[in-house]
Task: inverse folding
């Protein structure tokens, strides 16, 4: 991919980076002035291969979850700015497609359902590593906005749309997959105690979701080739 960027001058973004060994390639490309960005996911920063239970295909994803040493390398990439964003890569897989009943990793759909748990899971691991919230938040806010070319987003500043989240960084909760608001109740963090609770979400200054009332309003519209 980097060779392609060198040959064409095109910008490239590495999705779902799981292998910490690849970070040196990204660092070298950036040092050479190439327009390369990279993201990783909460499951690569918080889950370890040797902790995956037998017959638990809710942990199956592509690329796969690796060991703790690899995870340490990914966190180094988070802290030194090589990784621009942390994204959920949320999987739409149903429980049946995951083969949760028979635990068949070979037939199971590869993907992690992690949108609702992404921030809390990553923040829980960050705290265990002595990493502050101010170091983590840019990878969920300004980092993704910058990658997408939406520099006005992810900031609390005059003129920016008031897309805000009220987050309680000290409150803990236990993940119950059946109570998550994902359409498909399956999670590799089921039964884990996580730290950090989203209390309210605002879109353009209007509350659209709260932990007590749930969904308050739906805004936006479906984007498709036809509507554009």
Result:
């Amino acid at each position: 991919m980097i060779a392609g960027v060198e040959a064409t001058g095109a910008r490239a973004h590495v999705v779902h980076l799981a292998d910490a060994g690849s970070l040196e390639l990204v660092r070298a490309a950036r040092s050479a002035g190439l327009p390369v960005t990279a993201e990783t996911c909460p499951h690569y920063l918080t889950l370890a291969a040797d902790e995956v239970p037998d017959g638990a295909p809710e942990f199956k994803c592509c690329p796969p979850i690796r060991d703790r040493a690899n995870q340490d390398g990914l966190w180094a990439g988070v802290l030194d700015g090589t990784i621009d964003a942390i994204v959920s890569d949320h999987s739409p897989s149903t429980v049946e497609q995951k083969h949760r009943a028979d635990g068949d990793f070979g037939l199971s759909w590869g993907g992690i359902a992690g949108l609702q748990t992404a921030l809390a899971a990553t923040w829980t691991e960050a705290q265990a590593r002595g990493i502050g919230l101010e170091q983590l938040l840019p990878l969920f806010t300004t980092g993704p906005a910058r990658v997408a070319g939406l520099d006005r987003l992810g900031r609390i500043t005059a003129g920016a749309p008031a897309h805000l989240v009220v987050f309680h960084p000290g409150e803990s909760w236990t993940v119950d997959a059946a109570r998550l608001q994902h359409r498909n109740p399956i999670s590799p963090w089921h039964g884990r105690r996580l730290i950090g609770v989203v209390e309210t979400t605002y879109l353009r200054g209007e509350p659209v979701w709260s932990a007590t009332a749930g969904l308050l309003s739906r805004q936006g519209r479906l984007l498709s080739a036809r509507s554009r």
